[in-house]
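Q: What does the predicted 3D structure of Pyoverdine export ATP-binding/permease protein PvdT look like?
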Amino acid sequence: MHEADTGAAPLIALEGVTRTYISGEETVTVLRGLDLSIMAGEMVAIVGASGSGKSTLMNILGCLDRPSSGRYRVAGRDVAQLSADELAGLRRAHFGFVFQRYNLLPELSALGNVEMPAIYAGLAPSVRRTRAAALLGRLGMASRLAHRPGQLSGGQQQRVSIARALMNDAEVILADEPTGALDRQSGEEVLKILDELNAEGRTVVIVTHDMNVAARARRIIEIDDGRIVDDRLTGPARVPPPVSSETPAMVPPRWRQRLDPFREAFRMALMSMNAHRLRTGLTMLGIVIGVASVVCVVALGEGSRQRVLANISALGTNTIEIFAGKDFGDTRSGRITTLVAADADQLARQPYVAAATPTVSTQSTVRLGAKEANALVNGVSESYFAAKGTKLARGRFFDATSVASRALDVVIDENTRKALFDAAGVEPIGAVVLIGTVPARVVGVIQPQQGGFGSSQNLSLYLPYTTVQTRILGTTALRSITLKIKDDVDSAYAAQAVTQFLTQRHGAKDFFILNTDDIRRTITSTTQTMTLLIAAIAVISLVVGGIGVMNIMLVSVSERVGEIGVRMAVGARPSDILQQFLTEAVMVCLLGGATGVGLALAFGAAFALAGSTFTLVYSSGSILLALACSSFIGVAFGYLPARSAARLDPVTALTNSRQ
Ligand code: ADP
Ligand code: MG
């Protein structure tokens, strides 16, 4: 009807549009075949009783909703053909919504709310801030830029929402009962603003049930029960002036279009985390504990590995121990008497051997005056100390002469010195101790070895092996032979050669060999296995933490449905919403991860302060991995909530927000 008047193509054209809702078994038809066209520059009032379908129509006009059947064309484009992103583009650039309940985001200032549509349009921050401030200033809100919606009156909030609708220079303003929640005077002001916007050349569609309000429009459409029952002109339509010149220069570079929503998502994430500090903290807890335990466990594993390896090198590098018996578990090894001093002599002559020192050992009491203790008595040769890398604290080692003459010389360790001499205040060197019933003169005290195997509480005595064999044990058998291999010889090769040599000599393999390389390898792989095992447990706790994050994020999404609806209404693409929630999940996890790492470092520092024998060795690799892991958990467990947010239907989201 009206298009016939002017002959131009309508801006908005509905043909036979219906909208039905399916609720449960029932199908509710809200719009029943609407035909309507609106020309650019018109000011149209839609009136009708409550429940007649006005809001449903507005949502379709604004591309928040789609018709169930019929055709809707915006500037000639059929919306049925458009993707979700293209619809978002229309909402962003062509339509500006003004709602009865304003629908401002409570965490944002007036300025922040007005700016929002421009963020999704990719406008530079400085430009959009200036423009938002100018729009608010024009609507008489210059002194309220930093106020939150809660600090503004209804009329002021509605002006903020109008400024927001104008932010991207919308051609069409869709106002759904904009004065419904306002007092008369504020309502009047809002209507005046809408009138001015129409005078500028913008198309204004306003829903109202107030006939006074409707009278301001030059065309009134009345809806009853989903049908247009009246469509009349009350005044001449304005001739639209040329397109407003204040259109912002808006062709932002692509990188900005990509980067800006990300920065905004980051800012929003911080804001919402800050708004729900307790909840955020509790959400993080699982991640904090998980990351802290992973980092600690890995550090502890690395610490103990390094420690054990250091102990092994303290045992002397490139040494081979030959024991009597078939294996460690051989219970007869004490009674096997095939390993003798002559073996050591022969081995010492082998080209790959630097030194061979026979050892015997036994447990015995050691006494000085009234003091008595149990000690491990080692019978060794003079080369033993050099082979083991043992260092003297005082005195001297016994020498080859002592070994040959079965001298009663004893070298004691630090534990023995403490146990026997400390309390008595006797100078150890030169003192005579009783080993069992055998008296021996102390010639040297050795420095405590770094850790070493077995308990550090053990007392150890070292005597010439000949002395121990004849005076204490009464046997010529050896417990073991310690070989020091020449530096340029491979220890595996040496072990093989020793095995061959001794097997030939004894006619059977009645001994076994341990070399430090084997021990080192075994210990490294054992600690690695342990670390892996415990880290796996820690990873499980991380996963549990991630599920916690997912849980809370899902709750957060349903709590923030309104916000999501508003963002979609001003033109956020589903991908923008996805990005926002994903960013938030990642930030929560990353912050949790960083806190966890901090906690682990603090734990290590506390351990060091307490003088514990455990050392935690942190590697930047494990810390980076923990952080990477927590971001990954954020993405993995944040994805589902973020997707459910992005998939929300804009109308449903907005409707729920109005509760
Ligand atoms: P108005 O804005 O004119 O008051 P609405 O367009 O909001 O009316 O609603 C029209 C009718 O559609 C109402 O009867 C309402 O109950 C129904 N309706 C609106 N949204 C839904 C929905 N999501 N599901 C089912 N019925 C709905
Ligand atoms: Mg309504």
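A (community wiki): The structure tokens above were generated from the sequence. Confidence is low (pLDDT under 50) at residues 1-6, 451-455. The longest strand covers residues 353-368.
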